[in-house]
Amino acid sequence: MTIWNLGSINADLVYRVPHLPGPGETLGARSLSRGLGGKGANMSVAAARAAARVVHLGAVGREGAWMVERLLEYGVDTRWIATRAGDSGHAVICVDDAGENLIVIHPGANREIQDAEVAAALDTAAPGDWFLSQNETNGQVAGAEAARARGLRVAHAAAPFEPDAARAILPLVDLLVLNAVEAAQLEAATGARIDALGVADVVVTRGGDGCRWHHGDASPVDVPALAVDPVDTTGAGDTFTGFLIAGLDRGLPMRQALALATQAAALMVTRAGAADVIPDLKEIEESRLGS
């Protein structure tokens, strides 16, 4: 089967600074690194490294060819990534010596994806494939509608959380993934408990407390986190989601897919970076996390 991911593609520009700059302050950076990021790209790479076939649906600017090439190197099918005349999405990230950060995101081409392009790509999908989206692009509802019409299963990661966006896509979703803060925000926005949203499966990630799976009227299932020494939590949630969808796409039962996703996220937080450092199945097995 295949995962069709309508997702953001960002260049992460990370500046190491002695402290976070204040208003009006000019501050020299100690170093600069450029990497591949964006919640969508992270999830595509994670799913590919979890041995799934992944097709990324998205857009970059003319200077973004290196990001498309990197996705391809990581095993992602990039034929449906469009090139726009404007800028690619990018994030400017300042990180100080204490690990605190300041982030400014420009969505760029991530908000210029055409519904017709997504529909054309999904015309080549098969019933039973997965359609995945996050809230960093346009076209999420139209894409989910096109996917449902073609018999695909629909998964959505409700981040960054926006009440109107979440309410609009919920009726089309089979699997919802969000963190504990987003779950509380969604309950406040809808007036419904997280297990009463009409979504078949809801997975709430809880950081160091693991995750909780809600499935219909059944009692929720808790999957504990694994003990590691965290270095950087960037991309851990995206890694979890990518591995979870990949596991389900490969036919794993939900409980087993959650365990795999938990292992991947635990290994991810021991590394600094985003898409470029997401582990693969072999690294997870060799790490012996959860054994």
Automatic annotation (TrEMBL):
Cofactor binding remark: Requires a divalent cation, most likely magnesium in vivo, as an electrophilic catalyst to aid phosphoryl group transfer. It is the chelate of the metal and the nucleotide that is the actual substrate.
GO biological process per UniProt: D-ribose catabolic process
Q: Where is the Carbohydrate kinase PfkB domain?
A: 6-279
Supply one GO CC term from the record: cytoplasm
Catalysed reactions, as listed in the record? D-ribose + ATP = D-ribose 5-phosphate + ADP + H(+)
According to its UniProt record, where is this protein located?
Cytoplasm
Notes on how activity is controlled: Activated by a monovalent cation that binds near, but not in, the active site. The most likely occupant of the site in vivo is potassium. Ion binding induces a conformational change that may alter substrate affinity.
Where along the chain is the active site annotated?
A: D238
Q: Which residues bind substrate?
A: N10, A11, D12, G38, K39, G40, A41, N42, E136, D238
Keyword terms: ATP-binding, Carbohydrate metabolism, Cytoplasm, Kinase, Magnesium, Metal-binding, Nucleotide-binding, Potassium, Transferase
Q: In which pathway does it act?
A: Carbohydrate metabolism; D-ribose degradation; D-ribose 5-phosphate from beta-D-ribopyranose: step 2/2
Which cofactors does this protein require?
Answer: Mg(2+)
One annotated GO molecular function is: metal ion binding
**Binding-site residues, K(+):** D232, T234, M268, R271, G273
Biological role: Catalyzes the phosphorylation of ribose at O-5 in a reaction requiring ATP and magnesium. The resulting D-ribose-5-phosphate can then be used either for sythesis of nucleotides, histidine, and tryptophan, or as a component of the pentose phosphate pathway.
Q: What is this protein called?
A: Ribokinase
Species, as recorded: Roseivivax jejudonensis
Its organism's taxonomic lineage begins at: Bacteria, Pseudomonadati, Pseudomonadota, Alphaproteobacteria, Rhodobacterales
Give the gene name: rbsK_2
